[in-house]
Amino acid sequence: MRAIRIEAYGGPEVLQHVDLPVPRPAPGSLLVRMHHAGINFMDIHTRQGKYAQSRSYPVRLPCTLGMEGAGVVEAVGEGVTTHRVGDRVAWCIVWGSYAEYAVVPAWQAVPVPDGVGLDLAAASVFQGFTAHYLAHDVGSLVPGRSCLVHAASGGIGQILIQMAKRAGARVFATTSSAEKAEIACRRGADAVFLYDNGRFADAVREATGGQGVDVVYDSLGKATLRDSFRAARSRGLIVNYGNVSGSVTDLDPLELGESGSLLLTRPRLADHLRDAAEILGRAQAVFSALLDGSLKIDIAGRYTMDNVEEAHAAYEERRMVGKPVLDIGV
Question: Which CATH number do you get for residue 252?
């Protein structure tokens, strides 16, 4: 089978096109014929080596890239009773989807309902699950609460805006351009501000009568985190769930107190997908919203294994808005 692997960390040039034997499903696992793989910043970070020492995501070299995908069950391993050959399934946080076949633990695979294409499933699981736990588990968004969503035109940002509005929250957003701000507005943001070298915090303060928001969702890290503190209300919550602009390595906890006794958390999706029931619950929430039209997810670009390097370069350089997918088979 064809696969995309890395044996060293680096730029898109370390992606290797290889021929591997079709794997066998281990006990408790599924062999899935891949149709589509999601392309995510986690793939970029895996390739760059940012998870080389991670305990949450223990992926090591050499590895087949791709941590999200959708396809059709080809075979089931010993002891599997939850899935059958021919089932349409999707998953995330399991590496190996940049290949014609993938082995996936059965407890991490969710059924894809009729009416949701496998391409859309592959584009919605990782980012949809992430937005769901951020909105409902971490931020506890309900009517009367407010939040600020950074990188609002990105894949997770667009979904998070929609889920926050469905929960009844007032939603502010930030983007880097007027064009991207229009996307955030279309997704339902109540007001959108440009980063403006940190002056977004002043705009949020003004829009909230000087109070600040209850929750700030910050996926950028170094470039925005301290101004995110300024945008939050006293005893507000700062959710740093990414570090696209770089890690903050010089934070003194005293700053949280000086900024209004803020709470700062750095959650990870793996800790919010602890068992099959939790995964299935999030999948049902995402897929049902796609089916009833209350959640919109756009596929920003389609690539194949022949031009996966182009996809990585475009995503890493933030030249695409929305979620790209890798089309592997039909």
Answer: 3.40.50.720
